[in-house]
């Protein structure tokens, strides 16, 4: 067993020297022509799985904010309706008032005209009646005063009407705006609620991803290049599993378990390992026939960055390791499955 651990540590060390200094992906790798669609789907499902709880928490917080906003919008719409009702009522009343003042002015103008005619008639009367003429002229003066007063009142009524029209128009627009805002607030809530109702669970997404893992391996292998890998805390893995691997290392550390290990290795290194690990031959003997199980070159998931030989605190995992217990309980949440014959070997298929 000791030999085995030492050999695996060698493997881990070799892989780590290859590790690039590329920054750890914070999200699934951007679309690349060389990465098969199924692998992108896999990465996206794992991303959704590992962010499902955070996504749900964010949606719930958004919903709470939107509900507060809706209450505010609804109350603003109620207020705007009251202001508009009052502005329209005032406009009706001011319009009626303006019409009455206009009628009164017309009647004052008719009275003035009648008074002027009376002066003319009286002036033609013979014998001349000076007292009657003077009376008729005083009547003209009085009718002129009344006409002028009512003309002033009409100007005032017209000004009030202009103001009332403007206020009514402003209130109508404000009501329309407030109603639209309330409708928008309600539809934003409905949209968030739909997203909450249809959101997948972490376990559901992980199960969907796991169902694709063999196809991911099959389609990734023929198009894989080293450029498809990235380093996560010194472990080089395929970009499509980098997010999940990083989350696994972070979450394990939060539980007091340190995880590291050797991920990607080249085919040339795999050939070397077949020799170092005492396989009967490089190309045909089964992995189990080697002193340390070592896959035939071209078949190892390490060669495409989809497997990691896990170490904890610099030691290769055994079934007795605390890290092995942690991984047995949690690794599937991150898409990693153990190869039963090798406690340290974890990959997306368990192969
Ligand atoms: Zn391995």
The helicity comes to: 55-70%
Count all strands and give the number.
7
Radius of gyration: 45 Å
Biggest sheet architecture: 5 strands, antiparallel
Judging by the overall fold, what is the CATH architecture of the largest domain?
2-Layer Sandwich
N-C termini distance:
21 Å
Ions and ligands: zinc ion
Poorly predicted ranges: 1-26
Q: What form results from the Cα inertia axes?
A: rod-shaped
Helical stretch tally: 7
Classify the fold: give the CATH topology of the largest domain: Muramoyl-pentapeptide Carboxypeptidase, domain 2
Content of β-strand = 5-15%
Number of spatially distinct domains: 2
Element string (H = helix, E = strand): HHHHEEHEHEEHEE
Q: Which quaternary structure do these chains form?
A: single chain
- The assigned structural class equals alpha+beta
Domain D-alanyl-D-alanine carboxypeptidase-like core: 236-337
Protein name: D-alanyl-D-alanine carboxypeptidase
Biased composition (Basic and acidic residues): 68-84
Region (Disordered): 64-84, 117-150
């Amino acid at each position: 067993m000791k030999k085995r651990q030492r050999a695996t540590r060698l493997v881990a060390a070799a892989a780590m020297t290859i590790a690039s200094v590329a920054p750890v992906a914070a999200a699934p790798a951007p679309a690349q022509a060389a990465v098969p669609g199924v692998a992108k789907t896999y990465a996206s499902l794992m991303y959704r799985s590992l962010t499902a709880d955070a996504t749900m928490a964010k949606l719930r917080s958004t919903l709470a904010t939107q509900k507060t906003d809706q209450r505010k919008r609804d109350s603003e719409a109620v207020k705007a309706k009251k202001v508009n009702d009052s502005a329209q009522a005032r406009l009706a009343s001011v319009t009626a008032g303006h019409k009455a003042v206009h009628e009164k002015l017309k009647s004052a103008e008719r009275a003035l005209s009648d008074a002027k005619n009376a002066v003319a008639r009286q002036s033609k009367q013979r014998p001349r009646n000076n007292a009657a003429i003077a009376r008729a002229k005083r009547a003209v003066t009085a009718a002129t005063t009344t006409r002028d007063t009512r003309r002033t009142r009409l100007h005032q009524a017209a000004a009030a009407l202009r103001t009332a029209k403007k206020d009514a128009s402003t209130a109508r627009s404000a009501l329309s705006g407030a109603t639209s805002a309330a409708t928008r607030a309600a539809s934003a809530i409905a949209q968030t609620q739909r997203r909450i109702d249809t959101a997948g669970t972490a376990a559901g997404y992980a199960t969907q991803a796991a169902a694709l893992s063999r196809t991911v391996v099959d389609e990734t292998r023929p198009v894989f290049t080293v450029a498809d890998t990235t380093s996560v805390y010194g472990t080089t893995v395929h970009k499509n599993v980098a997010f999940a691997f990083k989350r696994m290392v972070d979450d394990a550390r939060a539980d007091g378990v340190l995880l590291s290990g050797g991920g990607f290795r080249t085919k040339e290194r795999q050939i070397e390992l077949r020799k170092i690990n005492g396989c009967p031959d490089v190309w045909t003997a089964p992995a189990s026939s080697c002193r340390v199980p070592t896959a035939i070159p071209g078949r190892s998931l390490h060669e495409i960055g989809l497997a990691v030989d896990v170490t904890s605190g610099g030691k290769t995992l055994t079934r007795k390791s605390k890290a092995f217990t942690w991984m047995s309980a949690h690794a599937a949440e991150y898409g990693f499955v153990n190869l039963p014959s090798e406690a340290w070997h974890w990959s997306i298929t368990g192969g």
